[in-house]
């Protein structure tokens, strides 16, 4: 029975993957024909990510994802599949199928050649007379790209003392009108509406853009670029439920990606897990899973996944900046230098590469050089968020606070949901001894990551400063940090100290005990440990539980000088009290004996 | 533009508008040398043109440069006779420039000409060092710095610049241009037949086609376009392609109006921002929030490196009560400006390294104060003080201290009652008042050391205010500490008030010379001003009702052109007059109040903030009410209401409501009075600790309404509550008023004995605070109470009244005078030893006076009482005719009173 079910499941997944395979192969051709190379690349990545094509009932099913938490994924090597197999469940896109068969006319071929040579104007011009959806899309797309190119050039030309940045794609107005005319007639196909959506997005008509893009992905779900465009519009968690999306496996990719973008990492991880069952060999899923783990500060797991990713795709640069962040945090000098070296050899002028090098120099404490590379990354991509934030960190290290604030602020202005930059701003102002001013920034960061203990700790530290002296607020902040699994144990110690200073011995003892437990578990015995023991020793003595106090003091004797002396004094005190009390009960007994 | 990236830090970017001005200057300097020559102008037209050019080379109204249309409009307005002709010529000259080569030619031609001037009389105008001369030279320089792409761009922009104006300037009907478009379209169709489908590109390519068309076609479209440029058609194909793109670009720019916008230079844009900020500061702004916000958004897009736009947005939000946005913009401004600073104010480079974070804190503090967040404001200001000390930023320190002083004096009671009194942890035993005094002294000392005149003046004024309001041990009894009589010291107030204007006039002259000296640290001055203005409005606050600081920067004029100091200092000088008015009001002289307010209203109209100005108007109106009756005062207020914008209006409204309330009480319209009172209390902000004055006033009037309507129990309860709150807030002035009110209530209730202690307490209080007028009122009340105690006390009451008479007649308002007169008559009449027959005039004269005065006040009840008494007296004197007259008047009053009391109408003036 069990076997049969397994067989059935296998067969079903085989069928699914066969269907996916056919869909993807077709989609790649469609996308490539229209010059949508990024989407084609993505689709191809997923295509080889499908389980290996085997005969129906042979071979084990791919290992379930959940088992692979620690074990490195043993993935079958890729082989090029030459046979095409039309799955039974294929629900193709009818209107595109005829078009596939339609012979590309000569002009289209010429235009495509121009397009591939990046001569966009020429391509558009060559297509001016052609009818047909494919030609139309290619013409619009070429025009749009020509405008984009011009815009980039203009931005550099226009960068005056006032930093004019009003350069816009000059073709947008024309494209919008043309596309609108067709759209209102309902004559736009999926690609046409994708184009229209992009134009609308650039024209800041976001609601309309959402509608049009939804229509596009519903009509033709395999265009990952359209999904990405849609994701860029989902800046607010509230937008997502309003979208009208048909059920499709591409939608699951989209939702997972949006979850990651909105910092709902656990949800995103769950979705990727589900997708992994369908695409067990997909690098995209692997990279995104790693990113999610990184966002959850699960560095070991993320590192393992990235290593895995690099093993299968050694020349990959996408996402490697995150990997470098992990290596930075774990202070892996050699691995980071290796990664940097490899990416320089692969592609020197990628923002990610510059970022990796910057991270490397930062780890080597050569902050000036790091700044140079972050600046280069920003020149390659002005909106490269993490480079702004990382540059801010470097400036902080260099004690150049105004520059740091400027860099962080730019990151925040590009994406106000970047909690790292808000946090950095707060830290910088705290360095400047302006805790009250810093609070505003920490508050913003906390709003974005209400479940991040670090933010709460930072706020607590601000409230605690001697300038503000707002202990109540500080205690409340630390409590919040505690309830959000404060890993470093900062909050516990601070809470204990605060209560101790406020004379609330019971609470202080409670937190010291907890902290003690935590440190014992972590085998981390620093000054905090000594403080805790000393306080608890005193506390227990005052409470009268002398044996416990003695226990604490005994442990204290293991440590260095000042603590040792204190412990000795305390022990002496305890002994004398013990002797005193030892005498007392006997007297009592004498009295009460008749 | 390319010139900018070439390191042109002045922000001077060559734009079509500047080119047009160059051409006009050319037309002015040497009309004949231009090709084709400009027509020579008559002498007076030349002079006007010169003025026009001067104006335009330094204009800063608006941040965008005018379009050609607007320029033409302005030119026509400036010179109705020849303007049209000039515009036409300018248009044709601009048309001539259609390729980089022609631009080169033009600049080559003006290079030499800028010095040789044909008109001998005023050739200095285009001299090398004159303003237009400099302008020309900068244009030439920045043209020379342009890269080729930059030049191409300029040509394209020029095309977009004169395109929309073409139809108007040249008188070509628009459909003709359309026809041109059609024509070229048809040509396109001949070639490729696609353009129909996408008109946009057709428009874009139109230019391309035009330039490639044979010159004959172009001549049909623009007659003046006589150039046929052989070099272009023969020139490299690559270049031509480049043009095609550029022109396509230009066409879409032409359609999209916002795309044709060219920013003025950095200095001019900053000037614009300062002007707007000044307008907001003065609260004279009529533009609604959204409009300015849209402007600023646009500006931000065009010039993202101008952090000051954020500041202006902050101000805008602040004044419209948008807390969150204001907060956001404030932080953004200081985040950005701390990093650079070098750009916005050239002299501040030394400042930039330190950062201006303390200024940020200072602004944050004043913002919190504005919104009534006392604790947060305290935190921010204390931190500002600390950081300023740490960074040795003395001027910021003083400003922060001043702001703290203001905050303490404003909301002392609230902060006192809150647990957050630990900011001055080292001296917790000190009361808020002492802290304030200490702070004020510290502030004054610092300001004196640092020679910051407006802060010296501010602290002096604040000290004066403090002396005005608070009891201190009189210095004359210094030896006997415990026995020392307590009281305020009017002499010191007067001294401080007298001192400040002298100091101010000194600084005005000083700062003027300083300005001509061309000091570099504009930034610090700006910063001072920024907070100087904040503090400038401080002293007026306690008198005023709006209860908010105007928080933050004011640049009312372009810093470089007009000295930045005199304005704020003058404003303070004006404020000192207002404070003088307040002191006179307290110390009891209505005419002197009027004089001081009048001085302020007349002499400082142009510099004073709307806040101060409305205050002086209000004071004048109140004086009118006290001396000429309510209708006159209400008419005056109506005038003031029309003059001021929204924010200042609320104060005018408050006073209007007070007057309406007074009037209604006198007339006996209880309902109206209650409505007015309710409206008044709704004007106050619901936040704790804000608008305290207004709240107290409303509560006070509420009690009076109860009293007038005969609800004595309620009146007593609310008066007691008011008394305790005033006492807690250390608001002695109002405490005195409330005591007298309580005495009145008891008198009304017929138990003079219980009223006496209140009156006596009020009297003592007034004496110790030197509140002469209030003291006199207390004495009159006392006399009335004595009178109520029985006829035997009439002589004593009369004595009291005679004591007050000099002040009452000299300085008192209508009501007090009427009341005193009536009381005097009552005393005489109830005194058994007084005989009416012997000295009739001693009774009749005061009665007559009182009747007249009550008549003006429209108080029918009391006027009727006067007439009734008159009639009685005249009856005993057997003067029948006069008696009948008085009786008739009495009846008239009673009828009117009944009517008023019966009226349920309660319509407030809008």
TrEMBL record, chain A:
Give the matching PROSITE patterns: TPR
Q: Matching Pfam families, A to Z?
A: ANAPC8 (PF04049), TPR_11 (PF13414), TPR_8 (PF13181)
**Keyword Amino-acid biosynthesis tagged:** no
Q: Which Gene3D superfamilies match?
A: Tetratricopeptide repeat domain
Q: Which InterPro entries match?
A: APC8, TPR-like_helical_dom_sf, TPR_rpt
Q: Which residues form the Cdc23 domain?
A: 21-290
Matching SUPFAM superfamilies: TPR-like
The protein in question is named Cdc23 domain-containing protein
Q: What is the lineage of its organism?
A: Eukaryota, Viridiplantae, Streptophyta, Embryophyta, Bryophyta
TrEMBL record, chain B:
Supply the alphabetized keyword list: Cell cycle, Cell division, Mitosis, Ubl conjugation pathway
Spans annotated as Disordered: 183-202
Q: In what ranges is there compositional bias, type Acidic residues?
A: 186-198
Q: Tell me the InterPro entries matching this sequence.
A: Apc5, Apc5_dom
Chain ranges of the Anaphase-promoting complex subunit domain: 310-409
Per the record, the similarity remark reads: Belongs to the APC5 family.
Q: What is this protein called?
A: Anaphase-promoting complex subunit 5
Q: Which organism is it from?
A: Sphagnum troendelagicum
């Amino acid at each position: 029975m069990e076997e049969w079910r397994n067989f059935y499941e296998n067969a079903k997944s085989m069928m699914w993957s066969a269907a996916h395979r056919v869909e993807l192969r077709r989609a790649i051709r469609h996308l490539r024909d229209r010059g949508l190379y990024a989407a084609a690349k993505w689709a191809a990545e997923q295509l080889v990510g499908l389980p290996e094509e085997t005969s129906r009932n042979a071979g084990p099913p791919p290992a379930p994802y959940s088992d692979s938490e620690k074990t490195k994924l043993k993935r079958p090597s890729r082989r090029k599949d030459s046979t095409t197999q039309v799955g039974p469940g294929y629900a193709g896109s009818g209107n595109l199928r005829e078009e596939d068969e339609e012979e590309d006319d000569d002009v289209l071929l010429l235009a495509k050649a121009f397009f591939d040579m990046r001569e966009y104007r020429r391509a558009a011009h060559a297509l001016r007379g052609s009818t047909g959806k494919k030609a139309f899309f290619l013409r619009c797309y070429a025009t749009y790209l020509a405008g984009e190119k011009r815009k980039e050039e203009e931005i550099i030309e226009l960068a005056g003392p006032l930093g004019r940045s009003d350069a816009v794609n000059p073709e947008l107005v024309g494209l919008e009108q043309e596309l609108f005319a067709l759209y209102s007639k309902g004559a736009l196909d999926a690609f046409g509406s994708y184009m229209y959506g992009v134009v609308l997005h650039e024209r800041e008509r976001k609601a309309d853009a959402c509608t049009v893009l939804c229509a596009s992905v519903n009509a033709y779900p395999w265009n990952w670029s359209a999904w990405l465009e849609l994701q860029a519009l989902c800046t607010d968690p509230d937008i997502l439920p309003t979208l009208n999306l048909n059920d499709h496996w591409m939608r699951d990719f989209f939702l997972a990606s949006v979850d990651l973008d909105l910092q709902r990492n656990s949800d995103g991880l769950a979705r990727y897990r589900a997708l992994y069952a369908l695409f067990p060999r997909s690098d995209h899923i692997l990279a995104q899973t790693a990113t999610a783990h990184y966002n959850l500060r699960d560095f070991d797991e993320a590192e393992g996944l990235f290593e895995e990713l690099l093993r299968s795709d050694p020349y990959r640069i996408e996402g490697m900046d995150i990997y470098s962040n992990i290596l930075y945090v774990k202070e892996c000098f050699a691995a980071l230098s290796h990664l940097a070296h490899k990416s320089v050899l692969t592609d020197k002028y990628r923002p990610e590469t510059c970022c990796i090098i910057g991270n490397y120099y930062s780890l080597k404490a050569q902050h000036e050089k790091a700044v140079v590379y972050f600046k280069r990354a920003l020149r390659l991509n002005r909106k490269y968020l993490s480079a702004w934030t990382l540059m801010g960190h470097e400036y902080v290290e260099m004690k150049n606070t105004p520059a740091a604030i400027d860099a962080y602020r730019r990151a925040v202005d590009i994406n106000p949901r970047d909690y790292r930059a808000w946090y950095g701003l707060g830290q910088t102002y705290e360095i400047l001894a302006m805790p009250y001013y810093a609070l505003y920034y920490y508050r913003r960061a906390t709003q974005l990551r209400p479940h991040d203990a670090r933010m709460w700790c930072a706020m607590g530290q601000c409230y605690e400063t001697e300038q503000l002296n707002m202990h109540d607020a500080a205690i409340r902040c630390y409590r919040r940090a505690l309830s959000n699994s404060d890993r470093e144990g900062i909050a516990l110690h601070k809470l204990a100290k605060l209560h101790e200073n406020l004379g609330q011995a019971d609470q202080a003892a409670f937190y010291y005990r907890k902290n003690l437990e935590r440190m014992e578990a972590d085998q981390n015995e620093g000054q905090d440990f000594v403080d805790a023991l000393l306080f608890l020793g005193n506390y227990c003595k005052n409470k009268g539980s002398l044996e416990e106090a003695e226990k604490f003091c005994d442990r204290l004797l293991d440590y260095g000088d000042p603590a040792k002396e204190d412990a000795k004094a305390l022990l002496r005190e305890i002994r004398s009290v013990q002797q005193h009390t030892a005498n007392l009960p006997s007297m009592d007994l004498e009295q009460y004996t008749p | 533009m390319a010139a900018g990236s070439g390191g042109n830090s002045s922000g001077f970017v060559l734009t079509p508008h500047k080119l047009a001005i160059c051409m006009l200057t050319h037309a002015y300097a040497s009309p004949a040398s231009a090709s084709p020559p400009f027509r020579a102008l008559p002498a007076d037209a030349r002079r006007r043109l010169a003025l026009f050019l001067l104006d335009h080379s330094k204009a800063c109204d608006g941040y965008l440069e005018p379009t050609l249309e607007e320029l033409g409009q302005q030119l026509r307005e400036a010179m109705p006779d020849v303007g049209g002709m000039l515009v036409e010529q300018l248009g044709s000259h601009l048309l001539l420039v259609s390729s980089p080569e022609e631009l080169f030619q033009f600049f080559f031609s003006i290079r030499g000409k800028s010095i040789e001037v044909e008109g001998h009389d005023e050739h200095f105008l285009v001299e090398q060092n004159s303003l237009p001369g400099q302008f020309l030279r900068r244009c030439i320089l920045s043209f020379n710095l342009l890269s080729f792409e930059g030049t191409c761009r300029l040509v394209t922009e020029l095309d977009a610049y004169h395109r929309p104006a073409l139809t108007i300037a040249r008188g070509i009907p628009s459909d003709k241009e359309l026809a041109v478009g059609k024509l070229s379209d048809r040509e396109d169709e001949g070639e490729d037949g696609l353009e129909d489908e996408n008109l946009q590109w057709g428009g874009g390519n139109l230019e391309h086609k035009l330039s490639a068309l044979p010159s004959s076609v172009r001549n049909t479209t623009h007659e003046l376009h006589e150039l046929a440029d052989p070099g272009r058609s023969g020139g490299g194909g690559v270049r031509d392609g480049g043009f095609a793109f550029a022109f396509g670009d230009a066409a879409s720019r032409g359609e999209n109006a916002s795309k044709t916008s060219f920013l003025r230079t950095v200095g001019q844009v900053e000037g614009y921002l300062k002007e707007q900020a000044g307008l907001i500061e003065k609260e004279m702004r009529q533009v609604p929030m959204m409009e300015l916000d849209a402007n600023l958004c646009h500006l931000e897009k065009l010039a993202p490196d101008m952090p000051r736009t954020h500041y202006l947005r902050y101000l805008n939000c602040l004044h419209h009560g948008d807390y969150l946005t204001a907060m956001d913009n404030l932080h953004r401004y200081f985040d950005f400006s701390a990093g650079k600073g070098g750009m916005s104010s050239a002299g501040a480079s030394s400042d930039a390294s330190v950062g201006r974070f303390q200024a940020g804190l200072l602004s944050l503090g004043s913002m919190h104060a504005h919104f009534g967040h006392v604790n947060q404001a305290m935190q921010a200001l204390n931190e500002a003080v600390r950081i300023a000390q740490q960074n040795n930023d003395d001027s910021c320190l003083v400003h922060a201290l001043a702001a703290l002083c203001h905050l303490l004096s404003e909301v002392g009671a609230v902060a006192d009652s809150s647990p957050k009194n630990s900011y001055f942890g080292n001296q917790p035993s000190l009361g808020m008042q002492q802290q304030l005094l200490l702070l004020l002294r510290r502030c004054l000392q610092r300001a004196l050391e640092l020679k910051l005149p407006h802060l010296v003046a501010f602290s002096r004024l604040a000290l004066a205010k403090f002396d005005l309001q608070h009891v201190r041990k009189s210095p004359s009894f210094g030896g006997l500490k415990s026995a020392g009589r307590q009281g305020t010291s009017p002499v010191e107030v007067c001294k401080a008030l007298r001192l400040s204007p002298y100091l101010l006039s000194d600084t005005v002259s000083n700062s003027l010379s300083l300005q001509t000296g061309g000091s570099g640290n504009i930034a610090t001055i700006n910063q001072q001003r920024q907070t100087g203005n904040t503090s400038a409005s401080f002293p007026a606050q306690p008198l005023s009702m709006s209860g908010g600081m105007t928080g933050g920067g004011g640049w009312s004029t372009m810093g470089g052109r007009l000295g930045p100091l005199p304005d704020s200092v003058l404003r303070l000088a004006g404020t000192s007059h207002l404070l003088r008015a307040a002191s006179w009001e307290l110390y009891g002289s209505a005419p002197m109040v009027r004089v001081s307010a009048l001085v302020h209203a007349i002499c400082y109209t142009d510099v004073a903030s709307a806040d101060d100005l409305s205050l002086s108007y209000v004071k004048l109106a109140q004086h009118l009410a006290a001396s000429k009756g309510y209708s006159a005062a209400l008419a005056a207020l109506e005038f003031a209401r029309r003059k001021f914008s929204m924010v200042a209006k609320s104060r005018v409204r408050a006073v209007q409501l007070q007057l309406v309330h007074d009037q209604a009480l006198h007339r006996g319209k209880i309902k109206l009075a209650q409505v007015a009172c309710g409206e008044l209390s709704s004007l106050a902000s619901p936040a704790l600790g804000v608008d305290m004055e207004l709240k107290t006033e409303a509560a006070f009037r509420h009690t009076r309404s109860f009293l007038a309507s005969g609800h004595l129990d309620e009146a007593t309860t609310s008066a007691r509550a008011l008394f305790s709150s005033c006492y807690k807030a250390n608001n002695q002035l109002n405490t005195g008023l409330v005591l007298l009110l309580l005495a009145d209530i008891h008198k009304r209730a017929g138990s003079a004995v219980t009223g006496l202690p209140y009156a006596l307490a009020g009297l003592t209080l007034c004496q110790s605070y030197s509140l002469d007028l209030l003291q006199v009122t207390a004495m009159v009340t006392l006399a009335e109470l004595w009178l109520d105690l029985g006829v035997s006390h009439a002589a004593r009451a009369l004595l009291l009244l005679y004591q007050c008479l000099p002040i009452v007649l000299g300085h008192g308002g209508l009501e007090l005078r009427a009341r005193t007169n009536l009381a005097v008559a009552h005393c005489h009449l109830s005194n058994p030893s007084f005989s009416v027959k012997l000295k009739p005039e001693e009774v009749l004269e005061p009665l007559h006076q009182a009747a007249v005065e009550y008549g003006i006040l429209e108080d029918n009840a009391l006027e009727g009482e006067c007439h009734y008494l008159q009639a009685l007296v005249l009856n005993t004197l057997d003067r029948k005719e006069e008696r009948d007259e008085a009786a008739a008047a009495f009846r008239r009053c009673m009828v009117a009173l009944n009517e008023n009391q019966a009226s349920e109408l309660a319509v407030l003036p809008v």
